[in-house]
Fold this sequence. Notes:
The chain is an all-alpha fold. It has a domain at 1-102: Tetratricopeptide repeat domain (Serine Threonine Protein Phosphatase 5, Tetratricopeptide repeat, Alpha Horseshoe). It is built from 15 helices and no strands. It has helices spanning 3-15, 19-32, 37-49, 53-66, 71-83, 87-100, 105-118, 121-134, 139-151, 155-168, 173-185, 189-202, 207-225, 232-252, 259-271. The radius of gyration is 22 Å and the shape is elongated.
Amino acid sequence: MIPEKILEQAAEFIRKGENDQAREILAEGLSAFPDHPGILNNLACIYITEDRPDQALDLLERAYRLDPENVDIAGNYGYALLVSGELDEARKVFDYVLKRKPRNIETLNHLALLETFAGDFVRAIELFERALKIAPRDVRLLNNFGVTLRKSGRFAEALAIFKKAHQISDQDVEVLANLGATLVRMRRYADAERYLKRALEIDPTDALSWYHLGCRYREEWVEEKANPTADPDNLADLAAEAAECFKKYKIHTRDYMYEDYVDAWLGELATG
Protein backbone atom coordinates (compact mmCIF):
# COMPACT_ATOMS: atom_id res chain seq x y z
CA MET A 1 0.00 0.00 0.00
CA ILE A 2 1.37 3.44 -0.90
CA PRO A 3 1.90 6.05 1.87
CA GLU A 4 -0.92 8.29 0.64
CA LYS A 5 -3.39 5.42 0.93
CA ILE A 6 -2.14 4.59 4.44
CA LEU A 7 -2.66 8.20 5.54
CA GLU A 8 -6.10 8.30 3.94
CA GLN A 9 -7.24 5.14 5.72
CA ALA A 10 -5.80 6.30 9.05
CA ALA A 11 -7.59 9.65 8.71
CA GLU A 12 -10.87 7.83 8.10
CA PHE A 13 -10.41 5.74 11.27
CA ILE A 14 -9.61 8.91 13.27
CA ARG A 15 -12.76 10.61 11.95
CA LYS A 16 -14.73 7.62 13.27
CA GLY A 17 -12.99 7.82 16.64
CA GLU A 18 -11.25 4.50 16.02
CA ASN A 19 -7.75 5.51 17.11
CA ASP A 20 -6.61 1.94 17.77
CA GLN A 21 -7.17 1.00 14.15
CA ALA A 22 -5.53 4.23 12.97
CA ARG A 23 -2.50 3.56 15.16
CA GLU A 24 -2.22 0.01 13.85
CA ILE A 25 -2.32 0.97 10.17
CA LEU A 26 0.15 3.82 10.71
CA ALA A 27 2.55 1.56 12.63
CA GLU A 28 2.41 -0.98 9.81
CA GLY A 29 2.97 1.84 7.32
CA LEU A 30 5.97 3.06 9.28
CA SER A 31 7.53 -0.40 9.08
CA ALA A 32 7.22 -0.25 5.29
CA PHE A 33 8.14 3.45 4.96
CA PRO A 34 10.32 4.36 7.98
CA ASP A 35 11.33 7.75 6.57
CA HIS A 36 7.93 9.05 5.49
CA PRO A 37 7.32 12.37 7.32
CA GLY A 38 3.54 12.19 7.02
CA ILE A 39 3.29 8.75 8.57
CA LEU A 40 5.70 9.73 11.35
CA ASN A 41 3.71 12.90 12.03
CA ASN A 42 0.29 11.26 12.09
CA LEU A 43 1.38 8.38 14.32
CA ALA A 44 2.99 10.88 16.70
CA CYS A 45 -0.26 12.87 16.89
CA ILE A 46 -2.06 9.73 18.07
CA TYR A 47 0.60 9.17 20.72
CA ILE A 48 0.11 12.76 21.92
CA THR A 49 -3.64 12.19 22.38
CA GLU A 50 -2.78 9.04 24.34
CA ASP A 51 -0.43 10.92 26.71
CA ARG A 52 2.66 9.22 25.31
CA PRO A 53 4.83 12.31 24.71
CA ASP A 54 8.18 10.52 24.68
CA GLN A 55 7.16 8.26 21.81
CA ALA A 56 5.58 11.20 19.98
CA LEU A 57 8.70 13.30 20.40
CA ASP A 58 10.95 10.60 18.94
CA LEU A 59 8.78 10.32 15.82
CA LEU A 60 8.40 14.08 15.38
CA GLU A 61 12.14 14.69 15.70
CA ARG A 62 12.61 12.32 12.78
CA ALA A 63 9.77 13.86 10.78
CA TYR A 64 11.11 17.39 11.38
CA ARG A 65 14.60 16.43 10.26
CA LEU A 66 13.18 14.86 7.11
CA ASP A 67 10.85 17.76 6.25
CA PRO A 68 11.84 20.94 8.13
CA GLU A 69 9.80 23.12 5.76
CA ASN A 70 6.51 21.46 6.75
CA VAL A 71 4.88 23.92 9.17
CA ASP A 72 2.30 21.41 10.43
CA ILE A 73 5.03 18.96 11.40
CA ALA A 74 7.03 21.77 13.00
CA GLY A 75 4.01 22.85 15.07
CA ASN A 76 3.42 19.31 16.30
CA TYR A 77 7.13 18.92 17.06
CA GLY A 78 7.06 22.11 19.11
CA TYR A 79 4.06 20.86 21.08
CA ALA A 80 5.77 17.51 21.78
CA LEU A 81 8.81 19.42 23.05
CA LEU A 82 6.52 21.56 25.21
CA VAL A 83 4.75 18.65 26.90
CA SER A 84 8.13 16.96 27.39
CA GLY A 85 9.34 20.01 29.32
CA GLU A 86 11.90 21.16 26.74
CA LEU A 87 10.72 24.76 26.78
CA ASP A 88 13.70 26.48 25.13
CA GLU A 89 13.70 24.13 22.16
CA ALA A 90 9.92 24.32 21.87
CA ARG A 91 10.06 28.13 21.85
CA LYS A 92 12.53 28.09 18.95
CA VAL A 93 10.27 25.83 16.91
CA PHE A 94 7.12 27.85 17.69
CA ASP A 95 8.90 31.10 16.76
CA TYR A 96 9.91 29.48 13.46
CA VAL A 97 6.32 28.43 12.75
CA LEU A 98 4.96 31.90 13.52
CA LYS A 99 7.46 33.50 11.16
CA ARG A 100 5.99 31.31 8.44
CA LYS A 101 2.37 31.49 9.61
CA PRO A 102 1.86 34.48 11.96
CA ARG A 103 -1.88 33.81 12.28
CA ASN A 104 -1.51 30.14 13.26
CA ILE A 105 -3.94 29.88 16.19
CA GLU A 106 -2.69 26.55 17.50
CA THR A 107 0.91 27.71 17.66
CA LEU A 108 -0.01 31.03 19.26
CA ASN A 109 -1.95 29.06 21.89
CA HIS A 110 0.90 26.64 22.53
CA LEU A 111 3.54 29.37 22.72
CA ALA A 112 1.34 31.31 25.14
CA LEU A 113 1.03 28.20 27.31
CA LEU A 114 4.80 27.77 27.19
CA GLU A 115 5.36 31.34 28.38
CA THR A 116 2.81 30.77 31.14
CA PHE A 117 4.75 27.70 32.31
CA ALA A 118 7.96 29.75 32.11
CA GLY A 119 6.40 32.50 34.24
CA ASP A 120 6.48 35.20 31.54
CA PHE A 121 2.86 36.23 31.99
CA VAL A 122 3.28 39.49 30.07
CA ARG A 123 4.30 37.72 26.88
CA ALA A 124 1.76 34.92 27.40
CA ILE A 125 -1.08 37.45 27.74
CA GLU A 126 0.11 39.33 24.64
CA LEU A 127 0.10 36.08 22.64
CA PHE A 128 -3.39 35.10 23.84
CA GLU A 129 -4.74 38.54 23.02
CA ARG A 130 -3.16 38.31 19.57
CA ALA A 131 -4.76 34.90 18.99
CA LEU A 132 -8.16 36.02 20.25
CA LYS A 133 -8.22 38.90 17.77
CA ILE A 134 -8.16 36.19 15.10
CA ALA A 135 -10.52 33.72 16.82
CA PRO A 136 -12.48 35.57 19.53
CA ARG A 137 -14.91 32.69 20.18
CA ASP A 138 -12.34 29.89 20.43
CA VAL A 139 -13.21 28.21 23.75
CA ARG A 140 -9.81 26.53 24.20
CA LEU A 141 -8.05 29.85 23.72
CA LEU A 142 -10.38 31.60 26.15
CA ASN A 143 -9.96 28.82 28.71
CA ASN A 144 -6.17 28.86 28.50
CA PHE A 145 -6.10 32.66 28.61
CA GLY A 146 -8.20 32.55 31.76
CA VAL A 147 -5.77 30.11 33.38
CA THR A 148 -2.87 32.44 32.60
CA LEU A 149 -4.71 35.43 34.05
CA ARG A 150 -5.51 33.44 37.20
CA LYS A 151 -1.91 32.29 37.58
CA SER A 152 -0.79 35.91 37.31
CA GLY A 153 -3.18 36.90 40.12
CA ARG A 154 -5.70 38.72 37.92
CA PHE A 155 -8.70 36.84 39.28
CA ALA A 156 -11.51 39.20 38.25
CA GLU A 157 -10.24 39.30 34.65
CA ALA A 158 -9.83 35.53 34.61
CA LEU A 159 -13.39 35.10 35.86
CA ALA A 160 -14.72 37.33 33.07
CA ILE A 161 -12.85 35.32 30.44
CA PHE A 162 -14.10 31.98 31.81
CA LYS A 163 -17.66 33.32 31.87
CA LYS A 164 -17.31 34.33 28.22
CA ALA A 165 -16.11 30.81 27.37
CA HIS A 166 -19.00 29.35 29.39
CA GLN A 167 -21.50 31.45 27.44
CA ILE A 168 -20.15 29.98 24.22
CA SER A 169 -19.97 26.38 25.48
CA ASP A 170 -21.96 25.84 28.68
CA GLN A 171 -21.27 22.09 28.80
CA ASP A 172 -17.48 22.40 28.68
CA VAL A 173 -16.22 20.62 31.80
CA GLU A 174 -12.78 22.22 31.78
CA VAL A 175 -14.26 25.71 31.61
CA LEU A 176 -16.67 24.89 34.45
CA ALA A 177 -13.80 23.54 36.54
CA ASN A 178 -11.75 26.68 35.93
CA LEU A 179 -14.70 28.90 36.77
CA GLY A 180 -14.98 27.06 40.06
CA ALA A 181 -11.23 27.19 40.71
CA THR A 182 -11.14 30.94 40.14
CA LEU A 183 -14.08 31.51 42.47
CA VAL A 184 -12.32 29.45 45.15
CA ARG A 185 -9.34 31.80 44.86
CA MET A 186 -11.76 34.72 45.26
CA ARG A 187 -13.30 33.02 48.35
CA ARG A 188 -16.71 32.85 46.72
CA TYR A 189 -17.21 29.29 47.91
CA ALA A 190 -20.92 28.80 47.23
CA ASP A 191 -20.57 30.03 43.63
CA ALA A 192 -17.48 27.86 43.14
CA GLU A 193 -19.30 24.81 44.43
CA ARG A 194 -22.17 25.36 41.99
CA TYR A 195 -19.91 25.37 38.93
CA LEU A 196 -17.76 22.47 40.13
CA LYS A 197 -20.76 20.27 40.92
CA ARG A 198 -22.19 21.09 37.49
CA ALA A 199 -18.92 19.94 35.91
CA LEU A 200 -19.14 16.68 37.86
CA GLU A 201 -22.74 16.14 36.80
CA ILE A 202 -21.50 16.19 33.21
CA ASP A 203 -18.37 14.12 33.89
CA PRO A 204 -18.18 12.41 37.30
CA THR A 205 -14.63 11.26 36.51
CA ASP A 206 -13.15 14.72 35.95
CA ALA A 207 -10.16 14.78 38.30
CA LEU A 208 -9.61 18.54 38.02
CA SER A 209 -13.14 19.28 39.21
CA TRP A 210 -12.75 16.90 42.16
CA TYR A 211 -9.46 18.59 43.05
CA HIS A 212 -10.88 22.11 42.98
CA LEU A 213 -14.02 21.06 44.84
CA GLY A 214 -11.76 19.59 47.51
CA CYS A 215 -9.87 22.89 47.62
CA ARG A 216 -13.17 24.72 48.03
CA TYR A 217 -14.00 22.75 51.21
CA ARG A 218 -10.44 22.78 52.52
CA GLU A 219 -10.08 26.56 52.12
CA GLU A 220 -13.25 27.18 54.10
CA TRP A 221 -12.13 24.59 56.68
CA VAL A 222 -8.80 26.43 57.13
CA GLU A 223 -10.61 29.75 57.55
CA GLU A 224 -13.09 28.29 60.04
CA LYS A 225 -10.32 26.63 62.06
CA ALA A 226 -8.87 30.09 62.70
CA ASN A 227 -12.20 31.22 64.14
CA PRO A 228 -12.33 30.55 67.92
CA THR A 229 -16.14 30.35 67.81
CA ALA A 230 -16.27 27.90 64.87
CA ASP A 231 -18.87 25.14 65.06
CA PRO A 232 -17.01 21.80 65.55
CA ASP A 233 -19.67 19.93 63.58
CA ASN A 234 -19.29 22.31 60.64
CA LEU A 235 -15.51 21.88 60.78
CA ALA A 236 -15.89 18.11 60.75
CA ASP A 237 -18.28 18.26 57.80
CA LEU A 238 -15.96 20.51 55.78
CA ALA A 239 -12.98 18.23 56.50
CA ALA A 240 -14.97 15.15 55.47
CA GLU A 241 -16.18 16.78 52.25
CA ALA A 242 -12.65 17.92 51.34
CA ALA A 243 -11.16 14.50 52.05
CA GLU A 244 -13.79 12.74 49.97
CA CYS A 245 -13.14 15.03 47.00
CA PHE A 246 -9.37 14.62 47.23
CA LYS A 247 -9.77 10.83 47.34
CA LYS A 248 -11.91 11.01 44.19
CA TYR A 249 -9.18 13.11 42.58
CA LYS A 250 -6.62 10.39 43.36
CA ILE A 251 -8.89 7.75 41.82
CA HIS A 252 -9.49 9.63 38.57
CA THR A 253 -6.32 11.60 37.93
CA ARG A 254 -3.92 10.63 35.14
CA ASP A 255 -1.19 13.26 35.40
CA TYR A 256 -0.72 13.38 39.22
CA MET A 257 0.04 17.11 39.03
CA TYR A 258 -1.40 17.79 42.48
CA GLU A 259 -0.65 14.42 44.07
CA ASP A 260 1.89 15.71 46.63
CA TYR A 261 -0.40 18.54 47.75
CA VAL A 262 -3.37 16.21 48.02
CA ASP A 263 -1.48 13.64 50.10
CA ALA A 264 -0.29 16.35 52.50
CA TRP A 265 -3.78 17.84 52.78
CA LEU A 266 -5.38 14.46 53.41
CA GLY A 267 -2.99 13.99 56.32
CA GLU A 268 -3.76 17.47 57.59
CA LEU A 269 -7.53 16.92 57.35
CA ALA A 270 -7.27 13.55 59.14
CA THR A 271 -5.43 15.02 62.10
CA GLY A 272 -7.58 18.17 62.28
